Amino acid sequence: MSTEFTVTETLDVKGLSCPMPIVKTKQAIDDLEAGEVLEVVSTDSGSMSDIQGWADGTDGVSLLEQDEGDDVYKHYVEKTD
Does residue 2 register a pLDDT over 80? Predict the structure, then answer.
């Protein structure tokens, strides 16, 4: 994992499948201030492409990094505005 950013909040969506990780991520991002970083922890392998696609298509967010561990997927999303 990179140390170029500081996690502001962690969202645990383990056990949830599409579309809930995206829905919960959007709700959590809406509560953050610009420049803050949300760590999303998921057990859904599809979240790797789902969160990437959501971030690419959503203004005001930037996907900083994704980490694929042992059945746990971590996503780091920054609210940019």
Answer: no
